[in-house]
Amino acid sequence: MLFLAAFSLKPYELAGQELFGKAKNNYRNFSEKRTMVVVNETDFTDLSIADAVKSGWRISLYELCSVDKFNKIMTDTNYYFLLRVEGKFRKEREANLEFLTLVKGSPEAHNGIEKMDEIVSMPLQSVGDESGKAFILMPALINIMQEHILNVSEDILKAYVGNSFYSNRVDGIGDKVLMIERVDIGSNITDQEIVNLFGENIVLSDPDEIATALSNAKEGTVVGFTVSPSDGGSRGYSYKMLIDTRTHELIFYRRHRISSRNPAGFTLEDLRRISTPYRIK
To answer: Can you tell me the distance from the alpha carbon of 252 to that of 163, in angstroms, rounded to the nearest whole number?
Structure first.
């Protein structure tokens, strides 16, 4: 289910859909529409979204929008809406993760956000996360969403490929330094296994180092980012991404269902795939 993270709306089930959805429409007219950015001005996460849009949104006109205005105009197909939502998958009792999603206005919108055409969604943070980690990545996430829209506009087949298009782009990272927090790597993976795969090409970093690399658009650097339920249990999904700090290109994007065998964070299979370009140089 999805519902606005900072407000109360009728939720709906995610049903495990592609986040980079297999679009049914070609959104070549996106730039001709206005994007309404739904913001609660007392919420720091929403304010970080607004700041990222102000500094980096380039593919359409935009306007900041209160939830009251959203409720009034959500049925208008002349608008797209960028908003923060909580997502709940089938068989989950409650939402564990927040997403940043872009949807198109629909006459059926009052019956739930699921009635609105979803353009693209990105995992943002666990529900209730106050670490501010998402703030650091917000400009990059905004750029990734825009790049996806442009990709779909140029080649509709990329929409039908969906998430898999973003899970096979690591071949060119062999000459870049990889920065990942140790907590973003599965707890069942040893430091020695990491060294065996990457050697000196990986830097196990702290949040401040990653924030600095992103804010400085550090050349030749890729950072890891994960979004998983905060309870650390064996339920739900864990999302893993690699982002180029200079270009904000999404180099790697996968998710897996969390289990005792595959805890949250980058799995050993992920690391083997990511490390291949380093090992064949």
So the answer is: 10
One DSSP character per residue, 33-77 reads SEEEEE--TT-HHHHHHHHHHHHH--SSEEEEE-HHHHHHHTT-T
- Kindly list the domain boundaries of the chain, sorted by start residue: 2-163, 167-279
Q: What is the dihedral of CA 39, 211, 175, 191, to 10 degrees?
A: -110
Residue recorded with tokens 């970093």: 205
Count other Cβ atoms within 10 Å, centred on residue 111: 12
42-46, 67-71, 155-159, 202-206: the lowest-pLDDT one: 155-159
Sign, CA dihedral 14-16-21-24, equals negative
Q: Do the Cβ atoms of 236 and 259 come closer than 8 Å?
A: no
112 phi and psi, to 5 degrees? 130, 150
Q: What is the residue-wise DSSP string for 90-135?
A: TT-SS--EEEEEEEE--TTGGG-GGGSEEEEEEEEEETT--S-HHH
Contact (CB, 8 A) for 262 and 186: yes
Average pLDDT, the chain: 85
End-to-end CA distance of the chain: 44
Q: Give 221-242 pLDDT, tens digit per residue.
A: 999 999 999 876 667 899 999 9
Question: From residue 48, how far is each of 53, 139, 142, 154, 179 by CA, in Å?
Answer: 9, 9, 11, 29, 23
CA nearest to 101, candidates 119, 77, 114, 88: 119
Give the pairing type, strands 2-4 and 97-104: unpaired
Q: SS3 of 91, please? A: coil
CB 229 within 8 A of CB 265: no
